[in-house]
Fold this protein.
Amino acid sequence: MHIIYHCYGGTHTSVIAAYIHTGKLSMDRIPSREEIESIPLFDKLNGQNDPGHIVPIGTDEYGNNVYSMGVKNAKKLIEPALKDLYYHIFNTNEGLLLIDTTGATNWIMKIGGFTSIALKFPVIGRPLVIYGTQKAYKKIVQIVKNLKAQEKAEYNAIKR
């Protein structure tokens, strides 16, 4: 299975969700500023994780591939395009999950992310977006937990 977490820029909630999903961040506690800063893709555009690029994050306990992606204002175009491409390649859409994490984004993250990335002023923006991420962390964890519960049910159904 291929699980793609996506958000507006692809550098905040989608990256955090993918790191939680793959066990690189804990579900049980809010990460420290240092832990968040150590994530190579967090709050950074570097070509690889610019919007529109699907960035591999790792695999989960079921062997599913987990990715992060930014979609900017093109979510209504990108989601159907990915689903169509996947269908044309595999003749099914089973095995592709697109998870929108923007619902967990708060205004602190938006201001911090805009300041850090769009205005290219990470000295001010990054601490804000990290603080906002810590405030939103439980919401992001809940998105991942909901998906993992569905994933576990499907995995158990297949094993029977």
